[in-house]
Amino acid sequence: MLKGRKMGEQMIGRFALAAVLFLAGSIDLATANEKLRVATEGAYPPFNFQDASGQLGGFDVDIAKALCQQMAVDCTFVAIPWTEIVQGLSDNKYDMIVASMAFTEERAQKMEFSAPYYRSHSVLVGDAEKFQDSAPAALSGVRIAAAQDTIQAEYLQKAYGASKAVLAKDQPGAQRLLLDNQADLLIGDAIELLSFLQTTEGARFGYVGDPISSEFLQSSAHITAKKGNSALIQKVNAALKQIKLNGVYDRINDAYFPFSIY
């Protein structure tokens, strides 16, 4: 009886262990099968863009993929026009946005914001021999291009009232306005415009004056989720911390920029 009892206990123990391992495997499988829909713009190189085949790439996309891997979730990506991207999140068309989104109080009423994942500042670009001063008072009557619905476009209309704001639907469109002489200057993010200045067409332009200093022009980019989805943002923040610690962030940074943008 004692021997049979011990054998029974051993069998129960084995079944219990098997059950624990099965449940653990099920939890891992459930986590691995979790899916997130990620939106980016696809028109803001080098942060996000589409290649000739329509494939999304760029710093934002690579960071998003690294975060998805760190969180052990399957992610699908979609390119959304900048003017529609916030509303699409509110309409639950995707779960989060990774598209160099700057924080504003207005946006914070509609979205949850992660910790910053890179930092920059805004500048003016144009004929650096003709224009040397970025102050509003020095640019009266000057045509300044910007991508609509960006913090730079909003700041342009508020701070450069004596200038003429010329708005395009996105940043490549704003760059085209400058290239085609439909604008005299272009306002945008310094890092993004570095890529533009390194192109064959953009090489004839340069930074104009000092970087624009304003509390309104936030110098950090954030990942966003639908308002109320703070649980996802907490996971994103934890994953951001991990990819900074394990070197993944730095490897992605170095693939696009010769300096740290964090």
From TrEMBL:
The Solute-binding protein family 3/N-terminal domain covers 35-260
The record's Gene Ontology cellular component field reads: periplasmic space
Could you identify this protein by its name? Answer: ABC transporter substrate-binding protein
Stored SUPFAM superfamilies:
Periplasmic binding protein-like II
Subcellular localization: Periplasm
Q: Which InterPro entries match?
A: SBP_3_CS, Solute-binding_3/MltF_N
User: What Pfam family is a match for this entry?
Assistant: SBP_bac_3
Species this protein is from: Rhizobium gallicum bv. gallicum R602sp
> Which family, according to UniProt?
Belongs to the bacterial solute-binding protein 3 family.
Gene3D superfamilies, alphabetized: Periplasmic binding protein-like II
Give the highest taxon in the source lineage.
Answer: Bacteria
Keywords recorded for this protein, A-Z: Plasmid, Signal
